[in-house]
Amino acid sequence: MIRQMTHQSGQIGIMDEIDRKICALLSEDARQSMAQLGVRVGLSPSAVNDRLRRLIERGVLRRTRADVDPEAVGLPVAAFVWIALAEGIDETAFRAAIADNTAVTACHHVTGGWSYLVQIRVASLVAVEDFLVALKRAGWIARTETMLALSTVVEPPFRYRR
């Protein structure tokens, strides 16, 4: 099956089942060689390389990285912070600060009564509090609500940014 896709950049492209399989295989293990991928999808290594190049150019494949265990690197606490932004703040500056904060593992602009949902990984509850205090001191926050993960059932690969 071939499906047309639209990416945020506005580029339109076609993804077939081989492209989807390559993406799935790389999601499982990004260390696979072109030859290994080729065997699994029935293409030559050079054909796989061409497809990877196109997937990267279209923004389908954004990056490859290791799956680091956050607890093994000293970050056992996962917290989810609902944030309502203060009126009149520079939202671009807020987004840049969140993107640069090494504790942040995900940030989503959301609908409803909140502005953003931010996921953080930190070493302790004190570090959660430090994160919240820093946001409030910057003047961006009208209110927050924080939830702690008791356990994790499914989690995307962790990006270690220390």
Task: Describe, in plain words, how this protein is organized in 3D.
The protein has 2 domains: 3-57, Winged helix-like DNA-binding domain superfamily/Winged helix DNA-binding domain (Arc Repressor Mutant, subunit A, Orthogonal Bundle); 77-148, Alpha-Beta Plaits (2-Layer Sandwich), CATH 3.30.70.920. 35% of the residues lie in helices and 23% in strands. The chain contains 5 helices and 6 strands, in the order ββαααβαββαβ. A 4-stranded antiparallel beta sheet has the order 4-5-3-6, covered by helices on one side. A two-stranded antiparallel ribbon has the order 1-2. β4 and β5 (116-122) form a beta hairpin. The chain starts with a strand and ends in a 14-residue tail after the last strand. One of its GO terms (biological process) is response to amino acid.
Count the domains.
Answer: 2
As an assembly, this protein is single chain
Query: Count of DSSP E strands?
Result: 6
Low-pLDDT stretches are 1-12
Rounded to the nearest angstrom, the radius of gyration is: 20 Å
CATH class of the largest domain: Alpha Beta
Name the beta content range: 15-25%
Q: Order of SSEs, N→C?
A: EEHHHEHEEHE
Which homologous superfamily in CATH is the superfamily of the largest domain?
Answer: Lrp/AsnC effector binding domain/regulation of amino acid metabolism (RAM) domain
CATH architecture field of the largest domain: 2-Layer Sandwich
Q: What does the main sheet amount to?
A: 4 strands, antiparallel
Strand-pairing-aware structural class: alpha+beta
Mean pLDDT: 89
Number of helices: 5
